[in-house]
Write a structure and sequence with these properties.
This protein is of the alpha+beta class. The chain has a single domain, classed as Ribosome hibernation promotion factor-like (Double Stranded RNA Binding Domain). It is built from two helices and four strands. A four-stranded mixed β-sheet has the order 1-2-3-4, with helices on one face. Strand 3 and strand 4 form a beta hairpin. The longest helix has 32 residues.
C-alpha cells in the first residue's frame, strides 16, 4: 500500500504485527479510496507496576484536506496486553471515524447537487 508508515517504540520490531497492520490498512484504504496515507505507531510504554504492560497503538489517517488521529490508549483495558487486540481496536475506531467523515462529505455533495 502506498503511503503506509509503521513505527515501533519501546518494543522490538515484529514482522507479524507489521503484517497485521498492513492487512488492516489495506482493508481500510480499500473501503475508503480517498485515504492518502496511514501512519501507525506501535508502542509498549512502561506502565505502572500494578498493571501489566499495555500496548498503545496510534494511527494518523490522511484524507484530502484533513488528518484523522486515533490515539487508542486504554490504561485500564487489560485486553490491550495483547498487541493484536490493541491493533484491532485502533483500526476499528479509525474505520468508524473515517466512515463518519466520508458520510458527511457524501451528504454535503448530495445537498449541493440538489440546489
Amino acid at each position: 500500500m502506498k503511503g503506509l508508515e509503521i513505527s515501533f517504540r519501546d518494543i522490538e520490531h515484529s514482522d507479524a504485527i507489521e503484517q497485521t497492520i498492513r492487512d488492516k490498512a489495506a482493508k481500510l484504504t480499500g473501503t475508503f479510496e480517498d485515504i492518502t496515507a496511514v501512519r501507525a505507531v506501535v508502542a509498549m510504554p512502561h506502565n505502572h507496576s500494578n498493571k501489566g504492560k499495555l500496548a498503545h497503538v496510534s494511527l494518523e489517517i490522511g484524507l484530502p484536506g484533513e488528518t484523522v488521529a486515533i490515539t487508542h490508549d486504554h490504561h485500564d483495558n487489560s485486553e490491550h496486553e495483547d498487541m493484536y487486540v490493541a491493533v484491532r481496536d485502533a483500526f476499528d475506531k479509525a474505520q468508524r471515524k473515517v466512515r463518519k467523515i466520508h458520510n458527511k462529505r457524501v451528504d454535503k455533495s448530495r445537498r449541493a447537487a440538489t440546489l
